[in-house]
Amino acid sequence: MVGLGAGGISAMQLVGTVGWAGLQFTILRYLPAAGPHKRLLLAYLYGAGGAAVVLCAMAMVAFGTNWFGVRFISANTLGGIVFCVSAIVWFVFSLQDAALVAVRRSVWVPVENALYGVSKLGLLIIFASVNSPWTIFGVWVGASLVMAAAVNTYLFTQPLAPALDSHSDLPSRSVVAIYSTGQTGTALLAWIPEFLVPLLVIRLLGQRENAYYYAAWTIGYSMRLISINMSNVLITEAAHDRAAVPALLRSSTRLAAVVLIPAMLVGLAVPGVILGIFGSGYEAGASLLRYYAISLVPFSIAGVVIAIDRISGKFGTAMLITGTGTVVTLALDLLLMPNMGISGAGLGWLLGQTVAAAVAVASYRFQARRPAGDLTPQRTHGKRLSRRSIRDAVRRP
């Protein structure tokens, strides 16, 4: 029953990702600039993303539950309705952290996450005797519902900005909609390896190898989250003050070096020791973890260029970078894994991120060489902000 419930949770998270994965960047980019319209924008994004999630959840109930082996979801009409509502709850819960960061209330994010974990544990203890796949599913959704209700009550009732913040730099609804659509496509492209590669490992190498792969992936993803969160903070702070982007880039680069280099060195030096926490035999993923550690460098380079694109209110460069990385990664995984095992998946990821970083640098340099007028720069405090000005500022000591 636990396995079925976990499968239902994965299905819910999959359909919820369609809604929140791209909209989080819309929130990070435009909520700080919305002035007195912050709540209206947040409600609009919740509504648009929620509608997409409902459609995907309905498709999952109608066509996907058999394929994923979670038939209990579609066994009756009530189950299908509960799943669709649960997907919306998970979507809001996943998106609200970006909203807290965007309104400079990020201090509540770890508190919320800790309370979420405690809530899950409490509900699990209460309902542990109920032998049903809906039990663990309900524990996840119930805890998410409690935290979503608490956080969004705060977001929609408490002051989100100083009283003097009456100016709005929010573009038209159509511009925000186009940006959100592009960022959703970009985010889904970036997530494809995360969802698809484990299935390829099972298909090509078996379930046991997939367990080793998942352990190394978990550690590698935790290291990548450092870079991801730095990029997200960069987007938010730049949205508050576009003129501060060059200084923010310099400080982000220094902070990334201080934090990521030690993490990379530890991953390279003692991967077997780290993976040993999962149990005996997981040291088989040591080479895979080393590849993930090295990939922090190109992954972070690509992330900075993608963040600059998002700050500019665009998504073309971001989609090109993530799309290139995904295609190269999957192609190399299929080529390398039959001979190298899970280490082939790590090498494929490293090479895919390296190619993506090369594309990012080339795109950035191309944009920097273009005349400033072609970059449609925004005006902030009487100054023009372009990729060329960012580049020159970063180069200054």
Low-confidence stretches: 372-387, 392-397
Oligomer: single chain
Give average pLDDT, whole number.
Answer: 82
How many DSSP H or I helices?
A: 14
Enumerate the strands of the largest sheet in spatial order, edge to edge or round the barrel. Answer: 1-2
Report the major sheet: 2 strands, antiparallel
Percent in strands: under 5%
Fraction of residues in H or I helices: over 70%
Helix and strand element order: HHHHHHHHHHHHHEEH
- The span between the termini is 59 Å
Judged by helices, strands and strand pairing, the structural class is: mainly alpha
Question: Would you give an account of this structure?
Answer:
Residues about 370-385 and about 390-395 have low confidence and may be disordered. The chain has 14 helices and two strands; from the N terminus they run H-H-H-H-H-H-H-H-H-H-H-H-H-E-E-H. It is about 80% helix and about 0% strand. A hairpin with a 2-residue loop joins strand 1 (about 380) and strand 2 (about 385). The protein has helices spanning about 1-30, 40-70, 75-100, 110-125, 135-155, 175-205, 205-240, 245-270, 270-275, 285-295, 295-310, 315-340, 340-370, 385-395; strands at about 380, 385.
